[in-house]
Amino acid sequence: xxxxxxTSLMAWGVLGVAGVYWYPLHWYSAATILxxxxxxxxxxWLRNRSFHCVITGPLFLIAAILFLLGSLxxxxxxxxxxxxxxxVGTGAAFLLEWKxxxxxxx
Length: 106
Known about the structure:
Elements lengths: L1 H20 L8 H19 L2 H21 L7 H27 L1
């Protein structure tokens, strides 16, 4: 968890600084936060092989791309649907990891 948090925080800082020059990546945009979380998940998976990160990393990155494209006006994004799918996907990833850990402990 600490590795994920540190990596996400660094990615958020770098993306936030980029957002000073390119507004769609401003520090509090959904795209910036989700890119940072996705980068953190992928880094965590590479280091700790956390099962849920295999699912949540790409999920966060896809949602970030959708929000970025939406803020650029290239696509219409139904924000509520994207957030709902993101929460369901994240919950499912943790549930699958919990079930896998429970099965491995037996």
